[in-house]
Amino acid sequence: MKEWGSVPTPTMADLSLSGLASGLDWKSLVDQLMQIEAAPITRLQKEQDTNTAKSNTLANLGTKLTGLQTAAQNLKDQSLFSGRTVTSGTSGSTWNFSAAAGTTAGSHTIAVTQLATKARRDGATDITSGLAATSDVAGVTLATMRTASVITAGTYSVNGHKISVATTDSLKDVFDAIAAATGDDITGSYDPVTDKVSLTSASNAKIVLGAANDTSNILAVLKLANNDSDTVSSYGTLGTARTGNTLATAGLNTAITAVDGTGAGTFTINGVAINYNVNTDSLSTLLKRINSSGAGVNASYDAINDRVALANSTTGDLGMTLSEAAGGVLGALGLTGGYTATRGQNAQFSVDGGPALISNSNTLDAAALGVPGLSVTVDSQTTQTLTIAADKAKMNANIKSFITAYNAVQTFIDSVTKITTTAGKVTTSILSDNRDVQGWASQMRRLAFDAVGGAGTIDRLDDLGIDLDQDGQMSVKNQDKLDSALTDRGADVEAFFTNANTGFAAKFDAKLTALLKTDTDSQTRLTKTNAAIDDQIAALQRRLDQQRQLLTNSFITMESAQSQIKNQSAALTNAFSTSSSK
């Protein structure tokens, strides 16, 4: 049982509270001592921050140096100064023209009197049978009817009457619906001989077909159009080939008989053999096979005129030969009889008033024109004057891009290395102590404005009208001088910039390669320095942690002693106080 007036003994957790027994705020004292001891770490961290800032600045400088190097390398490209532009004296010319690098500057007048065209063979029309063999069209369903377009369901108008149509209707159903809607005044019929539909008014009244709000295309598919009369007939035959069906079932008028027992046959176009099978190949498949065969022709089917056409894939007065046995597919397609052949034409032209020249193509190359490096694609029978000139705009742009990049580097170096004194106070910049970077600006300035050997009449930037302005920035001081040099002394300008060993751009490229390496090496050194500082800071921090622990332990021991003394004192006081009271 605890005696009256005894003092509880503090635990170790209690003693870690600063001044619990002693009344001394020793934790604050320890913090202050450690802060003083940590001064070297603070100095090292500031040094790291400075190194990081320097490294970032060098990285930014490296980016600008790389931009300048790219601009210098662009000036090393010989095609820049040998590049040519071509312009036409005809406003809004639709000709396409170009000139190869190094093409002799000058003007040439080209007079085109005939354009090149492709040879064609348009097959006979109406190569397929009609919609029906007789006038009875009760079994001819709209959905399967072999017309050029597929009929859509909806409504159409005849003499103002709206008539509905479904794709499941037969052609006879259509005629019956028209008669019903017009009170049997207008009747429809199909003629198997002409393969046309006719509408006739019994009252001899004018037939009016269609309305703006019709939703079915049936009138257009049946080729029926108003003619201000009481009788309207299809303006063309209606039956067309089913291009997706096999050749045997495509509806061709002429049977294909020059095939073997399996239905296989062959023919040649321009000496290229092409195989087919009437039982497995569709018309669409056959046309694609012709186009990819290497025969040099393009085949197509015209559903409106119901015919197949062949056209040479290249222009010019070139032949087209077809060969097959009698009864073959070409005959059934109307390509060997009843066809229309159109001979291809060569382009005809003259250059600078010279003799008439010809070309298979409308692209007149250097060989056709007799002008080395010039190519012109013509599309009209006109006379145009083309002017070939140095590409001054591109040259100017690249030179000015270099100037911009050069000024950016110089401005940046000046800003990060400058030292200013104001009212006796000296202010430095982040790289003021970097002697290498300080010297780069002057090195590049000397390199830029030194003479370049072996460049003919141009050996300095000043010869191109380029100099430093009052702010020390490079600029084109005389644009006329630069333009004149690019126009009249192109070879000398090219030599000044592009000479492989002594050229302006080559020297700058080599110099910048060296500067970029130095820049990168400097960043690497700063990174290694910061890594070493990290090690120093870690070592100092371990020492500080040990010192803090030693001091803390000492003060806790003091607190323990103070606590014991207080307990003993309290016990004595209590003992004497009790004795006196007896």
Number of helices: 14
Strand order of the largest sheet: 1-20-3-16-17
Structural class: alpha+beta
Calculate the mean pLDDT score and round it.
90
Terminus-to-terminus distance: 21 Å
> Which blocks of ≥5 consecutive residues have pLDDT under 50?
1-7, 12-16
Amount of helix:
25-40%
Morphology call? elongated
Radius of gyration: 49 Å
* Strand content bin: 15-25%
Q: What's the story with the biggest beta sheet?
A: 5 strands, antiparallel
How many β-strand stretches? 24
How would you explain this protein's 3D organization?
There is one protein chain. This protein is α+β, with helices and mostly antiparallel strands. It contains 14 helices and 24 strands. The chain has a five-stranded antiparallel beta sheet with strand order 1-20-3-16-17, with no helix packed on it. The protein has a four-stranded antiparallel beta sheet with strand order 12-13-4-15. β21 and β22 (425-427) form a beta hairpin. Mean pLDDT is 90; it is low at 1-7 and 12-16.
Task: Provide a brief overview of the structure.
The chain is of the alpha+beta class and 582 residues long.
